[in-house]
Amino acid sequence: MKFLKERFSKDLGIDLGTSNSLVYQKNKGIVVREPSVVAFNEKSKEVLAVGKKANKMIGRTPGSITAVKPMKDGVIADFDVTEKMLQSFINRINNRTRFFKPRIIVCIPSGATDVENKAVLDAALQAGSREAYLIEEAMAAAMGVGLPVQDPMGNMIVDIGGGSTDVAVISLGGIVISEVIRDGGNRMDTQIIQYIKKNYNLAIGERTAEELKKEIGTVSLTKSDASKEIRGRDLVKGLPKSINIRAEEIKEALQHPVENIINTIKMVLENTPPELSSDIINNGIILTGGGSLLRSIDERIQNEIEITVHATQKPLDSVAEGTGIALEEINTLKETLISSGY
User: Fold this and answer.
1) What pLDDT, on the 0 to 100 scale, is given for residue 341?
2) What is the rounded average pLDDT of the residues 71-92?
3) Please, which residues bridge with residue 229 across strands?
4) Quick one: which of 92, 279, 300, 326 has the fewest CB in 10 Å?
5) For domain 144-183+258-311, which CATH number applies: 3.30.420.40, 3.30.70.20, 3.30.390.50, 2.40.30.60?
6) Strands 47-50 and 155-160, bridge-based pairing
């Protein structure tokens, strides 16, 4: 029976992110890439949509429908909704072989509490897995970008996600030192919203803020002439209004979260053992996660830390790819994974 389960079940690795969730299927790669959003009927609690369809409903639903993001700052904020989201993702892949429940590895931020870990494990088990394991995001990201994590050598990874930034030094298959802060892509969007509200008395939504960040957002030390027209609601008159926003203004809005990320990297480096610090100087810092796509953030970090920073080619996929590698090597990694039996 054990052989049949291993032969026919579709083992999955899940990057359960605050903004987006990715599912890696063993031997197939990334098969699900969806926003971490669930829409449900407020009265019946029936799930109406998950992922992209639910994301389109945010800010546009009638009173009877609620569209929510069940993850906050990289951890579960709403257990029941997270369970339903996971169940939806699992069923998409495993709908024809439900008798053979999958084995699942889910990513968590480094330093997550036991309560947070148990919430993720319970959600995975309730959603339909036969075995559930957790892997720290920094370790998964390092594996996903191809770092030699098992070697006696120091490697630093900085994973800027939607809800948090995970900074870690890895050696001999474990995390030597790490720090997680709640400054990521979502905090950057919030700072943009607050900046425009304060300076223009204009209310904009998360989607508009994210578009500004992606299209003209920068933290470059050189001046940018880029700009973008946006629409929102005038907070004085209550009417729709259009304004033009310059890239330099977005840079100003992003100063605080970017400085927090840089200061966290400095703090981790200050507490890293000297031998590993020497390795990091030689190898450089690896930058990944969706937030690493912000223009010039690698140059900004390199300029202030004075260590070479390497941006990865597929920053959005590195954590999910790492869970796939962990699935392949699960028997040798079980000592470093957190299991549902802890």
Assistant:
1) 53
2) 86
3) 244
4) 92
5) 3.30.420.40
6) unpaired
* Beta bridge partner(s), residue 311: 287
Give the β-pairing of 174-181 and 202-203: unpaired
Question: Per this entry, what is the length of the chain?
Answer: 342
- Per-residue pLDDT at 95: 64
**What pLDDT sits at residue 129?**
86
Distance CA(67)–CA(107), nearest Å, equals 24
Place of tokens 């941006």: 311
CA separation for the pair 51, 90 (Å, rounded) = 13
Q: How far apart are CA 240 and CA 200, in angstroms?
A: 13
| Cα angle: 322, vertex 323, 326; to 5 degrees | 90
Please state, in angstroms and as integers, the Cα–Cα distance from residue 319 to each residue in 116, 123, 142, 147, following that order. 19, 19, 8, 12
For residue 229, count other CB atoms closer than 10 A to its CB.
8
